[in-house]
Structure formats: C-alpha cells, structure tokens
Amino acid sequence: LEFLENHGDANLTHQDLLARMPPQLRSEFLRDLQDGKLQETILKPWHPWWRRKLGPVEDDSNVSLHLHDSTSKTKTLDERLLRVPQFSTICKKQQSSQLLLYNLIDIVYSFCWTMRLYHGLDNILVRSTTKVQNETNGVLVVEAGLCLVQNSTVLQKDARYSSLEQVLSTCTLTSTKVFPDGCNTSWSSLVEDCAHILASHRLVGRALLEACDLLKAATQHLKLENSLDQDDNKEIVVRLRQVRKKVEFFLSWSQYA
Predict the structure, then answer these.
(1) What is the pLDDT of residues 104-162, one digit of tens each?
(2) Nearest to 247 by CA among 202, 224, 214, 201
C-alpha cells in the first residue's frame, strides 16, 4: 500500500487495486467494506456527539460550530444559541407546541440518519473541500444536504404530524425502505438518537444549527458550481434556502417556546 501511495498510477481503478492486494488483505478489505468499518481508517474520527462516551463528562459549551462563510468567525455553541432570534419575532401566530414537537422529531430523525451515513458534519465538509486531481469533491456536501431534506417528510413534503405514533411509524418505515438490506445503523438506534437529542434544548439547538450549516454549505457550493445546468442549480438553491428557513423556524421555537 505504501508503494502504491508513493508510486501508484493516478488512473488506477478499484479493480486494479484489488488485484494487486495480497489475498488475505483483499479478504479483510472486502469484509470491512461490507461491515461498514472502513470509515475508521479513511475518515476523521467521529462519535455521535449526542451520545456520551463512557468516562468523564465533557463540557460542550465551547464546542465550535462553524458558520460556513468566509466573512464570519467560528463561534462556540453558546454564542450561536444566544444569537437565535426570539420565536415571537418570526412567528406571530399561536402554534401548537405538541404538533410542532412531532414535526421536530421527523427533522431530528433525518439529521441523525444523515450524520451517521456521512460520519458527521466535519467529514462532509472536509471531504467536500479536499482536492482530488486538482478538483474538489464539493458535490458530496450537496448530496448530504439533499439527503437531509429527502429523508424528512416535513422538510421534503411539508408533512404535518398529529401523534407520536404517526411520526415514528413514518420515520422508521422510510429509513427501512431506503436501505432494505440495512444501512449503517438501525431504525431503533435512530429512535434512541432522537430521544437523546430531544431530552435537551442545547442538543436540539446544536443539531438544528448543524443542519443549517450543512444546507448553507450545499447552497454555497451550488452557487459556485459551473459544471451543472445553471437552471437546475438555481432551482435546488431556492429549495435548499426554503428548507433552511424552516429549520431555523424550528430552531427558534425549540429554544424559546
């Protein structure tokens, strides 16, 4: 592998690489690929931050959440939560807290699912800006942003839920149908993820802020992308901006309602 890294052909295909691997290494590689363990060697270490690791409790007040804008400085979680607009300033009508909670569950479920699929926001952004043969793989951030939207019926279809059973049934059925052979996590784990996040205003705030960051980064890439049809890009950009506004609505409600 070191030889291939130092002297390998840039046009080496996956099949060529597998053919040059020793049989035992090839067997282990294919097994880890099937089991979803390769992220441990090719991606930045990531643990679902809403699930505490065993050991001393960590203080997340200084966690940096990036505003993905070259004119903005990185702000901590507390700083960003303090800047969330009051809910009364963005919504004048009285809203049913119970119904909004059911819709929020759908968004959080999709967020956890997307983060697990792509191994966290940092890996999405790093891999999207890493140059491969003088080109960035920015399409990855767009793919992840669309994944977040498409896996949420609230964000994708403006669905409205009226019961806990209804939203959980839809969410778990959706994640099972998309990956009938199993994805990188089970629906039961995703439901537990939601329970962990929804137990804390701060965790909900962080999840929705990261969702906003992902949508903003995807929008910025599409605005700079020239290889795709511009009309298609504009349509997706408008859609992602609308979805981001909806996420910001739930962010404000979750912190001030």
Answers:
(1) 999 999 999 999 988 899 988 887 665 544 445 568 899 999 999 999 999 999 999 99
(2) 214
Handedness of CA 35, 37, 43, 47 (dihedral sign): positive
Task: Please write down the long-range contacts of 170-176, taking CB distance under 8 Å and 24 or more positions apart.
Answer: 170/106, 171/105, 171/106, 171/109, 171/110, 175/109, 175/113, 175/151
pTM, 2 dp: 0.78
CA dist list (Å): 92 to 124, 175, 257: 36, 35, 12
- Rounded to 10 degrees, what is the CA torsion of 37, 215, 213, 139? 50
Distances (CA, A) of 237 to 3, 38, 91: 43, 32, 24
Q: What is the pLDDT of residues 218-254, one digit of tens each?
A: 998 888 765 455 667 788 999 999 999 999 999 999 9
Rounded to an integer, what distance in angstroms lies between the CA atom of residue 39 and that of residue 15? Answer: 20
